Known about the structure:
Helix content is 43%, strand content 14%. It is α+β, with helices and mostly antiparallel strands. A hairpin with a 2-residue loop joins strand 1 (101-105) and strand 2.
Amino acid sequence: xxxxxxxxxxxxxxxxxxxxxxxxxIGLRLLGKRGVGQLSVFEMVVIISLGxxxxxxMFYKEIGLMVPLAIxxxxxxxxxxxxxxxxxxxxxxxxxxGKATYIIERGIFSVNEFRKETLAQDEFFSELRQQGVSHxxxxxxxxxxxxxxxxxxxxxxxxxxxxxxxxPKDFAKASKIVDLAGLYACSFCGKVHNINEEQKAECTxxxxxxxxxADDRPRIK
Length: 221
């Protein structure tokens, strides 16, 4: 039931686990007060490193507690040094944390910026829908922060423009040839064009040729 170990080692495991638990809490306290959703990639690496250092001493009796304590001190010290250098140098800060990226401006995808990111279009649309967006014409600016969160700034209701619908059923109707003349949004970048019936057209912004009927409804709050 306990393998090759003696029952007494279970007590030692419990003590080691409790000690490492409080050491992790202290380490996280030294890193600051930001929530998990606000952590950058750099800070996530630090936390994963702390977790890795804490794991083995919990159940390997041949590993003393001084080794993980030394590792913790080095990791926290390196973190403090890195954040100090980031505060002193904007270039170093951009190198470590990256830069916030303008993904949408005035209802249209910034195509070149979006291509640099690993965020898929479906994943990004899901983020927008969770914040009450049904089409891109409601969005004045969307910024992908260094933490991976998306900050959205909306047009006032009276300034909402025709835009690309991002509701799954509407977006699924994308077609290269439109049935009725009217305003259509490019399914790739969201730029709106006036297209005639049964006409094939190419987006002047991104050169793609699939279209979705543009939506101009204000955001539901």
